[in-house]
Amino acid sequence: MTTLLRFEDVTLRRGGRLLFEGLDLGLKAGERLQLIGPNGSGKSSLIRLAAGLLTAERGLVERSPLALADDGLALDRELSLRRALRFWSTSVDVGLDALGLTILAEVPVRFLSSGQLKRATLARVAASRAPLWLLDEPLNALDEDGANRLAALVDAHVAEGGAVLAASHQLLPGDWRRMELGA
Amino acid sequence: MIGRLITREIRRASTGLAWLPTAFFLLIVALMPFAVGPDARVLSRIGGGTLWIAALTAALLPVERLIEPDRADGFIDQLSLHGLAEETIVVAKIIAHWLAFGPLLLIAAVPSAALLAMDGDSLARVEVSLAIGTPGLAALAVAIAAVTAGLPRAGSLAGLLLLPLAIPLLIFGAANAFLLEGAVSMLLTVGAPFVAGAAIRASRT
Question: Is B35 on the interface with A (CB under 8 A)?
Answer without folding.
Answer: no
